[in-house]
Amino acid sequence: MTSSGIGIVGTGISGLTLALRLQQLGVEVTLYAEKTADEMRAGRLPNTVARMRRAQEREEILGSVHGRLEGSLVGGARLHIGGAPPLEFRGTLADPFHAADFRVLLPALYEDYTARGGRVVVTPEPPGAREVDAWSAGHELMVVAAGRRSVAELFPRDGRRSPYDRPQRSLLAGLYAGMTTGDFFSYNVSPGGGEVFSLPMVAHGGLVTGILVEAIPGGPIEPVTKLSYRDDPGLFLHLLEKTLAEHAPRLAERIEPGAFDLVGPDDVLQGGVTPVVRRPFATLPSGRVALAIGDAWVTNDPITGQGANLGSHCAWVTADAIARGGPYDEGFARSLATEMWKVAGPVTDWTNAFLGAPGDHVLRLFAAAALDPFVADHFVNLFGDPVRAWALLGDPEAVDALLASRAEVLSEEGSPATGEV
């Protein structure tokens, strides 16, 4: 059944996936964008994200596959958890990750949509609730997938699902040259300091190394996240190299002396993210409904790497619900939000839990992974299935049952496991 007249605010992964999927399903769409595709390409680094297999499969179904350069698929993960002694292990991903600079990926999706006849309205200013309400007169439903003003004005914070009122990490994301890229995800935990993540990323000039530093406020990693590269590139790089050597030593080993640098001065992002879940829909003054998806609804810290994947999932679920037909009223929005929360809930709970100190059961899992390749593989593959991830990591009994079953298998085999780093 074909519907019509859907307005989408935002050209992030959620808005563009929704627009392309509705277009594919024969639904009329108008996309409201703050920037053109060329302006998106020319902007500052917006994030460093990986898309897991399910997000990649959606792009394949849409016929919008971009940036699959040789060596760009991430086939494994190496973990380092600091301590005396540190824990280290490596796992193989059954379904490789793919990471692309969103200044490469999103403009390509945008142009796929317009090349297929999609309508775009470029807004001169960030829209607010008044603009969304005015636009709603021409649509059966407004979907807000981005927009600073419209999000704050339309969708209030849900205190039941939002335990934090400020950022829990000071963030530094950047794209770097002068490092061996490898084909794996580097995951480093410094107790009391924070986390450092790295993976190969497709950028404008080809493959580069993306690094995300997640520093606990007041901890030993935080200073590097506050330095300005533009003010003093030498000092910035010196402190970053020193921080990596102390808190992510396996990553620091990949630096090529004298060659390590940001790809460019716009290839860095600093700040913090306040994790928040907002009300998933609003009734506009006109009486029509505005639905929130993606970051407009759920904004999580990037510590578990789920933001783009959740945005893609929610867009897909939303598109299929819209294509089944209206009315697109509060009942529709409430039912859809319940369906989306089946994945968004575990992602949010998992992410919020990892912003705190790991529970004893998680430490037991890490310790077992350092000795047993099966457990190592099991853990790293959780990133591609957040529902299964939280079912395990959120339940000490489930972790203990897994470890007990592995101990029984190893006992029957009669030989100790050995992990590989």
TrEMBL record:
Signal peptide as annotated in the record: none
Name of the molecule in the record: Styrene monooxygenase StyA putative substrate binding domain-containing protein
Organism per entry: Sphaerisporangium siamense
Domain of life: Bacteria
Domain spans labelled Styrene monooxygenase StyA putative substrate binding: 147-254
Gene3D superfamilies with a match to the protein in the record: 3.30.9.40, 6.10.250.650, FAD/NAD(P)-binding domain
